[in-house]
Design brief:
By secondary structure, the chain is of the alpha/beta class. It has 17 helices and 15 strands. The structure holds pyridoxal-5'-phosphate.
């Protein structure tokens, strides 16, 4: 057993990591060959690795560190809460102050009558809650056959068996026997990749109407809910055409099905509003939350539920819960995070400063020979890499995954950008300053140039 020290050389850390640590969503062959990048510290929007590199984190970790790294206030609150009440559960008619206060705060921030919070430890768990809650809701209303949840291909809703089934990632469905029964996937509103000759607006309507077709084919009496991210994140920051969401909302209103907005990425300021649903004028019955709720400083998620759904669920015992539902330390950290977001007017900074400047710069990337489209909503953006902009063509297989090549160039230039196939995506901390946006853009452009030179 080796003692891990701050001075241990990177290769030794990597060797120990490779020997014992199984990584999530990681190309294991490459990991064995190259070793993992070892992150040692972080402050603001900057990561430091074990080699001393200063890396601009344009992904805010995994889309979560909304207030940026290094906020001592959250550490202080966590330490205080650990001393006072490090753990107690919320089962069996028990509660505690952090859970009460956080539920109340979320209810205050959430739109409409979304006044009720069922806590979980993560977004995946919260979506598992949603599966059981919407089916139980309809059963309590005397309609137990309404059990199908409609979702979208290329959606991401988590990695547990339930939430991974809700997601529409075929690579995930290929492993471990997913999806579970009674989940149905319709096509995504990804105009760049799938819009063909249609205008974006016509395509948006057509893809929304697939929801109606699915409801009619499956039977209204069989469909419990539709779940979607306001802006698809892990699928490649796919921003639906403007026509899409109004049509989806109309269809949800017309038929008796619940609308679940998965706000795990869009929530807590990323779009410039507290929730993506407010930005896109969506009226959900349930919202899934996690990530930005605590800015990733502590694991916590939840389902924010309408008064109508919650009142039905409250008719009897809901046989569901997690050991860490409403964990007092995570709840206290989340409350402090929300206080900072609110008191420092970080949403105002997004709306008035960061997002407009980033949008202007980001959209100018379409001038680059590799970039076909540039999309951005608030502080989440994507570019589509293409060999031929007019036809929106994909790269030939022998070129390799150009997004991957570009991502590697970004790492080499001390920038974390992610790729989804040949889409490059960003989701930086919301506190990003204009000069940091300039740095991000410089490094992104250098990386694109190097990628272009490499594949020519
Ligand atoms: N929903 C969405 C939209 C997500 O992006 C994610 C994670 O990326 C999840 C759910 C799952 O959250 P977690 O990883 O906390 O389980």
């Amino acid at each position: 057993m080796s003692t891990i020290t701050n001075h241990m050389p990177t290769e030794e850390l990597q060797a120990l990591d490779a020997a014992h640590h199984m990584h999530p969503f990681t190309a294991n062959g490459e990991l064995a060959q190259k070793g993992a990048r070892v992150i040692t510290r972080a402050d603001g929007v900057t990561l430091t690795d074990s080699e001393g590199n200063q890396i601009l984190d344009a992904m805010a970790g995994l889309w979560c560190v909304n207030i940026g790294y290094g906020r001592d206030e959250l550490a202080d609150v966590a330490a205080r809460q650990m001393r006072e009440l490090p753990y107690y559960n919320t089962f069996f008619q028990t509660t505690h102050r952090p859970a009460i206060e956080l539920a109340q705060k979320i209810a205050q921030l959430a739109p409409g009558d979304l006044n009720n919070v069922f806590f979980a430890g993560s977004g995946s768990e919260a979506n598992d809650t949603n599966i059981r809650m919407v089916r139980h809701y309809w059963a309590l209303k005397g309609k137990p056959s309404k059990s199908i949840i409609i979702s979208r291909k290329n959606a991401y809703h988590g990695s547990s068996v339930g939430s991974g089934s809700l997601g529409g990632m075929s690579a995930m469905h290929e492993q471990g026997g997913l999806p579970i029964p009674d989940v149905h996937h319709i096509n995504q509103p990804n105009w760049w990749a799938e819009g063909g000759d249609m205008s974006p607006e016509d395509f948006g309507i057509a893809r929304a109407q697939e929801l109606e077709q699915a409801i009619l084919e499956l039977g209204e009496d069989r469909v419990a809910a539709f779940i979607a991210e306001p802006v698809q994140g892990a699928g490649g920051v796919i921003v639906a055409p403007d026509s899409y969401w109004p049509e989806v909302q109309k269809i949800c209103d017309k038929y008796e099905i619940l609308l679940i907005a998965d706000e795990v990425i869009c929530g807590f300021g990323r779009t410039g509003e507290w929730f993506g649903s407010q930005k896109l004028d969506i009226r959900p019955d349930i919202m899934t939350i996690a990530k930005g709720l605590s800015s990733g400083y502590a694991p916590i998620g939840g389902s924010v539920v309408s008064d109508e759904v919650a009142s039905v669920i409250a008719q009897s015992e809901f046989n569901h819960g997690y050991t860490y539902s409403g964990h007092p330390v995570a709840a206290a950290v989340a409350l402090e995070n929300l206080r900072i977001l609110e008191e420092e007017n970080i949403l105002g900074h997004v709306r008035d400063v960061a997002a407009p400047y980033l949008k202007e710069k980001w959209e100018s990337l379409v001038a680059h020979p590799l970039v076909g489209e540039a999309k951005i909503v608030g502080m989440m953006g994507s570019i589509a890499l293409t060999p031929h902009k007019e036809s929106r063509a994909a790269f030939a297989a022998e070129t390799g995954t150009v997004g991957y090549i570009c991502r590697e160039r970004c790492f080499a230039n001390n920038l974390v950008m992610r790729h989804v196939g040949d889409r490059m995506i960003i989701s930086p901390p919301l506190i990003l300053k204009p000069e940091e946006i300039d740095m991000l853009m410089d490094r992104a452009l250098t990386s694109l140039d190097e990628c272009y030179a490499q594949i020519k």
